[in-house]
Amino acid sequence: MENENIDINTSDVDLKPKEKEEVIEIPAVSDDPEVECIIDANETVVDESKKECAKTEDSEESIVTEDALIENSEIQNTEITIETAFAGQDEDENQEKVDGETEDKTEDKADIDPEEELNKVKKQRIYQTFMKDIIEYDKLKEEYKEWILKSKLLGIETRKCSEKVCDEINKFLEIAKGLQEGKLDEKIESFLEGRIKGIKLIEKMINNVVKNNLSDFEQLSEEEIAILSSWESVKEMDVNVILKTENQNYNIITSLKAKKDSLIRNYFKFITSDILNILDGVRSGIQFLKQKKEVGQVLNPVEDIYRSLERNFMEYFCSINIQKIKVCLGDRFDINLHEAFDLEETDKVELNEKIFEEIRDGFIYSEPLFDMDSNYVIRSAQVIVYKKK
């Protein structure tokens, strides 16, 4: 039996899956090498067709992926291009603004008048001076009013003190008259007559003060004080006009300060020249009595009147804020509070430049004055000071 040649057309082979695939029965030709070769060739063709189909699918997927990547890249490039375009537009707009502002500033500078700028600087300096002057003026005005009141109080308190002193002196004179009517030793009578004259002199001095000097304080009234020009009233004026107004303000302040200082000078001049002189007379009488222990029966009334007068004057000083400088023997000499009346030689080194004795009382004003850190010394205390040989 001859083997039949079987032609298999590869183009007729359908490689696609079908719902029901026909089974081609091929006779067993295992013994025929030619048939076997044809079958192998046919299977090879089928496998290559499958591979080609798979490659085609992979190629299509690759193309799709590449297209997607390209499309995504184009979108990103488009976005970057848009952002770059807007950024460039913003930069252009910002640069235009800067250029515009620079041009405006340049135009503003071109419009600035140097003289006008100088006037502004001058006005600023004058403004500062104006404000300082106003502060100083307000302070001076209050101080001036305060010293008007203090001066009036000085007059009132001096009159009260004078009345008390005169009453005490009249009482003493009544007592002294009774003593003179009795039988006194000549020496004692001479002593009493001398003390009566001294007491009457004190009365005369205080009456003269009240009569001649006290009215200057009692009738003192607050003078009309000129008002400073305010900055608001002149700030729009020409610089020269403002400077002129500033000078006027300065003159007002100077005048007010002079009035205040005059009040203070007259106040303390009255104390030192009139009142302290009377007190010194009283203190001298007390020191004199310490040496007259032998007068016996008339000593007590005389000593009482001197002590009473001293007490009245110290109460008077307290009412006007004046205090006695406290001096203790052995204190270190203080040039700010003490005046060296004399020297007392000593061999002791530890006593050198210390106080040996007080000769005359000193007084200070106990309230702040002239912006001083310490109390104002009305009169230094006179002392005798130890000096090492």
Topology:
Elements: H1 33-111, H2 114-181, H3 186-212, H4 215-218, H5 239-289, H6 299-319, E1 322-324, E2 338-346, E3 355-360, E4 363-365, E5 376-379, E6 381-388
Parallel strand pairs: 2-6
Antiparallel strand pairs: 1-4, 3-6, 4-5
Could you characterize the architecture of this molecule?
The structure is a single chain. Helix content is 64%, strand content 8%. Residues 1-39 have low confidence and may be disordered. It has helices at residues 33-111, 114-181, 186-212, 215-218, 239-289, 299-319, and strands at 322-324, 338-346, 355-360, 363-365, 376-379, 381-388. It has 6 helices and 6 strands, in the order H-H-H-H-H-H-E-E-E-E-E-E. The strands form 2 sheets. Strands 1-4-5 form a 3-stranded antiparallel beta sheet. It has a 3-stranded mixed beta sheet with strand order 2-6-3, with no helix packed on it. It has 3 domains: 16-91; 115-320, Up-down Bundle (Ferritin), CATH 1.20.1260; 321-389, Head domain of nucleotide exchange factor GrpE (Nucleotide Exchange Factor Grpe, Chain A, domain 2, Roll). With 389 residues, it is mostly helical.
